[in-house]
């Protein structure tokens, strides 16, 4: 069985690839902020818009359905008021009296009246009903024996007794004394008529006595009302586009009024059972049916509208809403883009400056305009760069000084072995010729050369440094015929303390050159050293000519300044002492230094203040400071 | 990957939506559904709309009832034509027979088994509930009676006094005639002649001699052509067509008669107390006293008429006080058969007879109380006297056209009496017609 290795699947590779892409892809803060703002802003705008639209759509739909419901109510009320009128019309026969024969039951019971006369009298009564309402087409009274009295508007038509008899049988309700409402039908019992009518019928009781008033039917009164009545009230109401009005007889489960001939609407009848009085509309098979009852009847006024028609009506509003949302989103994106760009500009400036500094361009500075976190960062960066620059400069200069000193020394190291050997030959020659002074001078020189060349170290023991000064002084003493002497007053315990190389010789040389040389009589250069307050203090004194206060100030200025002295005349001397001064401060810091005091005609004192570095600490100190 | 993340919820949503819009039929409710479905009223009330005062009295009564018993809805309707009973029958023919209704002919409806039994407790409220075989089938609402309304101003001016016998009455008429004042007007909506005078003579000449006359007529023992009846008819005809009656007043309306009386052209009218109210309404000064507040006679009394009232005396001086019911309430059998409706109907009837409500109706109709608890109401002195006299008089309810007489005879009788009073037929003819009509009405009722 092959072992499934997840790490070998393509999916894993894809994941890895995406992960690396993600890791590697640089996405600027600006892009992120724009994206975030768009997501937050546009998304919330969208959601809000959708919510408002939905709520609005819901209420709009309710509003429209309510409007349609009101339409059905209005139609229902109109029909109801007609029926109220018809109620009165059908009761008319109970109060109608013919002038000669009294009430209808009296007329019918009167055996002295011929049947033609009776028919004429009753037709008169029916005619009175006929002219009560313009929509009444026919009024007829059918007696149980099949006899018919009828009144109609001109042109008068013949009554088809067979058809009307059938109609009577179909619609006759034996025990009802209430008004009946019959659906719209073709009134074809009048020959040749094309009128469509709905009919009100009522059994007319014999009211001669109170018993017969409930038990004996004189005849059945029919009032045919033109469909135009319904057409007109429906046309008067403003229907929604695409909606259709039907009237359905709930009990008979058939259309009482359906002006849309030819359309199969059996569906509607099958929904009837759902249309109950607690609700005002149903939605079935994508169509809305809004309905209301015609008060006091089984008739239901139904307005049908397909849901897409309903929705069409508020589509414009939806489009508008979407357009507004879209417009707002675009405006939002543009505004966010520029805002983010503007607000991230300082950050990008910082990033640019950082990059430039990174590339070594330490003169780069960030312009600070605003006063916020960014400006705080910018100021910090500026300050940091400045500090860095200053620091680099200082370290660099110390290095240069060190090198300069070494070069100064090395200048004398040309062909050292050749020099040693030569010097040795010369010294032997001098010994051979009993020239002791020359031999000693050469020995001093040779010692100095050895010190400089053999020890390419930064730190040396105080002892070696003083030995070097002694070698130098051997030559000076002989040169100046023992006029100058060197006094070294250093305790043996501090002789092993470590000091930077070549810090005494330049000062001693200065003392000889500038102090003692111009002095008449004997000169002394004294070197003292002691440990005071955790510091090694070395004093080099001479009793030479000393310096004028101006000169002293100038020298001190030169020492303090970071610049290298370029004065031609005093170049050497200046290099010597300045070099020493700079090196001490560079290596040990500001608390260690050289102090010069000089009094004209008395002499000059150069005081070193150095850290106490014992031989075993030397390595450690070197690591720490160099 | 990312696309899939968006696609999945979308697909789920779509599935949900399609699942929701399945085949099922949704029903919906619209908030402002016009749900004020017209509930069937607890009680339907139907009453005669012949008299506007009566209509407003009953409407006031009903609205007071609805206010006090908001739990019962009352549908009130009154007749529009002039034949109330015919309309009541038509109501039945329309299958809209009312629950509580005014009734003119309780026995006819009782025979047709249309009336519900009224509880004894309610029946006790009135002096004489209408009974049939021990069942209280209807309740009289207020009583009325015929009497002479006369102008006291004329009587005072000429020193005339109220007659104590029929002979004195005729003398009084002669005196007035001599003074140039027509003594009597008939007609008006009170049916002064057709119901008032005819019965006065019937009671005076026939009933006093034979108190069972109407029953006897039903059993066929007597006839309108008997001598005592023809005498009564003759006396009636003589008075109506004689010189004491304002010419053609039988065809006049109330207002015309009242204006004659106010103008002091006519001194007397035989009518019901309702006429008093009509006079007061037409001539409010009629209620002004003829005395100053100190009891002295007014010097310049310009009031034209102050109505007075007396019941007509018979030949021997006995006052003849007809006891007529102004209105009768009944409840349908259907109504009394349904406990909830019966409760509402009982409540309504009790409410009607409760003194404070009853008083208002009486006051409006100037009716005589028919309750066991005598009810007095604020009315001018004359009216108070009418009520008191009525209460303590020997009232006779055995007049022609009362509940015992066959139903349709009442209307038919008026026709003949009217003709007689207009002198268009002879007494003999009238008597014969009345007999025929009685027989016919009996036959009709038997059917």
UniProtKB/TrEMBL annotation, chain A:
Reaction equation(s) it catalyzes: ATP + protein L-histidine = ADP + protein N-phospho-L-histidine
SMART domains to which the protein is assigned, alphabetical: HAMP, HATPase_c
Keywords: ATP-binding, Cell membrane, Kinase, Membrane, Nucleotide-binding, Phosphoprotein, Transferase, Transmembrane, Transmembrane helix, Two-component regulatory system
Keyword NADP: no
EC number per UniProt: 2.7.13.3
Pfam families associated with the record: dCache_1, HAMP, HATPase_c, His_kinase
Gene3D superfamilies, alphabetized: 6.10.340.10, Histidine kinase-like ATPase, C-terminal domain
Main subcellular location: membrane
MF (Gene Ontology): ATP binding; phosphorelay sensor kinase activity
Residue ranges of every copy of the HAMP domain listed in the record: 341-393
Keyword Cell membrane attributed: yes
Domain Histidine kinase: 414-614
Transmembrane segments: 34-56, 320-339
GO cellular component assignments: plasma membrane
Membrane topology (UniProt): Multi-pass membrane protein
Localization (cell): Cell membrane
Protein name (database record): histidine kinase
Species name: Mordavella massiliensis
Automatic annotation (TrEMBL), chain B:
Lineage per the UniProt record: Bacteria, Bacillati, Bacillota, Clostridia, Eubacteriales
Species assigned in the record: Mordavella massiliensis
UniProt keyword Signal, yes or no: yes
Alphabetical list of Gene3D superfamilies matching this protein: Periplasmic binding protein-like II
InterPro entries for the chain: Bact_solute-bd_prot1, SBP
Signal peptide range in chain numbering: 1-21
UniProt protein name: Carbohydrate ABC transporter substrate-binding protein
Keyword vocabulary terms for this entry: Signal
Pfam families given in the database record: SBP_bac_1
């Amino acid at each position: 069985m092959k072992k499934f290795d997840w790490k070998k699947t393509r999916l894993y590779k894809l994941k890895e690839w995406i992960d690396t892409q993600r890791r590697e892809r640089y996405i600027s803060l600006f892009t992120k902020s724009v994206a975030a703002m768009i997501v937050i802003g546009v998304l919330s705008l969208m959601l809000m818009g959708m919510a408002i639209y939905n709520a609005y759509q819901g209420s709009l739909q309710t509003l429209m359905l309510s409007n349609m419901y009101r339409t059905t109510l209005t139609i229902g009320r109109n029909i109801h008021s007609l029926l109220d009128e018809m109620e009165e019309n059908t009761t008319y026969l109970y109060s109608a009296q013919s002038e000669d024969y009294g009430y209808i039951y009296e007329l019918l019971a009167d055996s002295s009246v011929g049947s033609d006369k009776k028919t004429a009298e009753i037709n008169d009564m029916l005619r009175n009903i006929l002219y009560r309402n313009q929509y009444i087409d026919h009024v007829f009274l059918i007696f149980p024996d099949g006899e018919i009295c009828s009144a109609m508007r001109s042109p008068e038509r013949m009554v088809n007794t067979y058809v009307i008899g059938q109609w009577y049988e179909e619609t006759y309700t034996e025990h009802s004394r209430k008004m009946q409402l019959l659906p719209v039908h073709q009134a074809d019992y009048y020959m040749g008529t094309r009128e469509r009518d709905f009919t009100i019928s009522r059994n007319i009781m014999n009211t001669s006595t109170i018993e017969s008033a409930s038990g004996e039917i004189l005849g059945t009164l029919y009032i045919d009302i033109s469909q135009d009545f319904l057409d007109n009230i429906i046309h008067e109401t403003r229907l929604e586009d695409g909606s259709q009005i039907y009237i359905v007889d709930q009990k008979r489960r058939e259309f009482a009024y359906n002006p849309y001939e030819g359309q199969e609407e059996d569906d509607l009848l099958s929904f009837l059972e759902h249309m109950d009085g607690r609700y005002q509309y149903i939605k079935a098979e994508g169509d809305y049916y809004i309905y209301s009852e015609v008060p006091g009847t089984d008739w239901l006024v139904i307005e049908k509208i397909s849901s897409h028609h309903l929705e069409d009506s508020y589509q414009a509003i939806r489009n508008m809403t979407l357009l507004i949302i879209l417009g707002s989103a675009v405006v939002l994106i543009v505004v966010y883009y520029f805002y983010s760009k503007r607000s991230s500009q300082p950050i990008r400036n910082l990033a640019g400056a950082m990059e430039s500094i990174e590339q070594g361009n330490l003169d780069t500075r960030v312009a600070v305009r605003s006063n916020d976190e960014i400006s705080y960062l910018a100021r910090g960066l500026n300050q940091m760069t400045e500090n860095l620059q200053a620091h680099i400069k200082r370290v660099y200069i110390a290095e240069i000084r060190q090198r300069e000193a070494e070069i100064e020394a090395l200048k004398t190291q040309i062909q050292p072995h050749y020099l040693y050997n030569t010097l040795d030959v010369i010294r032997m020659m001098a010994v051979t010729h009993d020239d002791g002074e020359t031999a000693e001078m050469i020995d001093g020189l040779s010692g100095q050369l050895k010190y400089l060349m053999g020890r390419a170290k930064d730190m040396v023991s105080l002892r070696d440094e003083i030995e070097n000064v002694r070698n130098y002084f051997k030559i000076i003493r002989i040169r100046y015929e023992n006029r100058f002497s060197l006094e070294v007053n250093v305790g043996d315990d501090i002789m092993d303390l470590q000091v930077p190389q070549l810090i005494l010789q330049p000062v001693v040389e200065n003392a000889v050159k500038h102090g003692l040389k111009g002095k008449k009589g004997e000169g002394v250069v004294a070197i003292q050293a002691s440990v005071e307050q955790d510091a090694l203090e070395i004093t080099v004194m001479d009793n030479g000519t000393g310096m004028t206060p101006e000169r002293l100030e100038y020298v001190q200025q030169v020492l303090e300044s970071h610049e290298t002295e370029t004065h031609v005349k005093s170049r050497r001397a200046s290099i010597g002492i300045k070099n020493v001064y700079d090196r001490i401060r560079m290596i040990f810091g500001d608390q260690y230094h050289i102090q010069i005091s000089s009094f004209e005609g008395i002499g000059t004192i150069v005081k070193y203040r150095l850290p106490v570095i014992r031989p075993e600490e030397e390595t450690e100190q070197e690591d720490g400071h160099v | 990957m990312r696309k899939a993340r968006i696609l999945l919820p979308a697909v789920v949503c779509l599935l949900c939506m399609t699942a929701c819009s399945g085949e099922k039929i949704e029903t919906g409710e619209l908030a402002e559904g016009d749900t004020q479905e017209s509930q069937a009223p607890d009680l339907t009330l139907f009453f005669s709309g012949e008299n506007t005062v009566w209509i407003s009295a009953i409407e006031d009564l009903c609205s007071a009832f609805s206010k006090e018993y908001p739990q019962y809805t009352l549908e009130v309707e009154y007749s529009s034509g002039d034949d109330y009973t015919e309309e009541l029958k038509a109501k039945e023919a329309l299958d809209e027979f009312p629950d509580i209704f005014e009734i003119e002919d309780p026995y006819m409806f009782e025979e047709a088994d249309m009336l519900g039994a009224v509880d004894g407790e309610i029946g006790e409220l009135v002096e004489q509930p209408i009974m049939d075989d021990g069942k209280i089938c209807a309740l009289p609402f207020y009583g009325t009676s015929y009497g002479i309304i006369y102008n006291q101003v004329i009587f005072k001016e000429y020193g005339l006094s109220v007659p104590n016998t029929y002979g004195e009455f005729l003398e009084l008429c002669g005196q007035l005639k001599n003074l140039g004042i027509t003594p009597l007007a008939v007609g008006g909506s009170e049916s002064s002649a057709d119901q008032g005078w005819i019965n006065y003579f019937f009671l005076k000449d026939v009933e006093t001699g034979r108190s069972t006359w109407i029953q006897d007529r039903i059993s066929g023992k007597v006839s309108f052509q008997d001598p005592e009846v023809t005498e009564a008819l003759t006396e009636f005809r003589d008075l109506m067509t004689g010189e004491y009656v304002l010419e053609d007043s039988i065809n006049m309306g109330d207002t015309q008669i009242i204006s004659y009386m106010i103008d002091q052209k006519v001194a007397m009218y035989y009518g019901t107390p309702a006429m008093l109210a009509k006079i007061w309404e037409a001539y409010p000064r009629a209620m002004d006293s003829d005395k100053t507040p100190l009891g002295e006679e007014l010097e310049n009394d310009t009031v034209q008429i102050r109505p007075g009232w007396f019941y007509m005396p018979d030949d021997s001086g006995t006052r003849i006080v007809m006891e007529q019911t102004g209105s009768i309430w009944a409840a349908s059998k259907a109504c009394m058969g349904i406990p909830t409706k019966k409760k509402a109907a009982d409540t309504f009837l009790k409410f009607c007879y409760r003194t404070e409500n009853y008083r208002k109706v009486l006051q409006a109709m100037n009716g005589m109380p028919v309750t066991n608890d005598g009810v007095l109401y604020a009315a001018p002195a004359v009216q108070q006297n009418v009520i008191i006299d009525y209460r303590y008089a020997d009232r006779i309810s055995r007049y022609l056209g009362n509940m015992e007489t066959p139903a349709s005879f009442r209307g038919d009788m008026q026709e003949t009496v009217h003709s007689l009073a207009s002198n268009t037929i002879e007494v003999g003819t009238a008597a014969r017609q009345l007999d025929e009509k009685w027989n016919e009405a009996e036959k009709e009722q038997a059917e």
